[in-house]
Amino acid sequence: MELTLEDPKPNKQNEMALRDATDRDVQAMLEVMRAAFVEYRKVLDPPSAAHAETVETVRRRLGRGRAVVAELQNQIVGFAFYEVQSDGLFYFSRLSVLPAFRRRGIGLALVEYIEGRAAEANAPGVRLGARVQLPHLVARYEKMGYRITRYMKHEGYTQPTYVYMEKIYSRA
Length: 172
Ligand SMILES: CC(C)(COP(=O)(O)OP(=O)(O)OC[C@H]1O[C@@H](n2cnc3c(N)ncnc32)[C@H](O)[C@@H]1OP(=O)(O)O)[C@@H](O)C(=O)NCCC(=O)NCCS
What we know:
CATH topology of the domain at 15-125: Aminopeptidase
Distance between the termini: 51 Å
Bound molecules: coenzyme A
């Protein structure tokens, strides 16, 4: 079938691309993280350490682990750090999507990319940390197959402030 002028044209430029981050992405990742986490300023107790990240801390994290970035038309619109923990599970953190690009599956695609990397590496599963104060996020991860495995407290707090959640593929 031929395309007519009225038909939407396939446009590769509008497709999202996912790839592992390099050192050149540090500044863009920092900007995406700041824009993503700004909604939690003066909301979370204790405040998210994301607000205190700098080019140096992002570069250091990238040095000891990896990150995935989501690009649209060569602009980084989302990312997450990930690393392998001592028990072999992949751990991801600072999952961030620019507010203007949310609710179109980019956050899910970033998590699925990390899950794919974990599966390729025969890791037993994937872990993340989520704030108890953000039950909608915990529920979202539950929908994605994650289960709460531990309740954790920040130093100086008497009640749990965050949880570890895991999606386990296999126990070696
Ligand atoms: C959490 C976060 C990364 C999600 O990013 P996102 O790209 O909006 O994620 P998704 O689009 O995959 O999913 C978000 C919602 O949009 C919905 N959605 C996905 N695609 C959709 C579409 N095409 N149309 C409408 N809704 C859609 C999902 O079902 C989901 O709904 P839910 O929250 O009710 O389950 C983003 O909100 C963010 O950066 N938040 C601030 C930082 C943060 O909290 N990070 C996580 C720390 S643990």
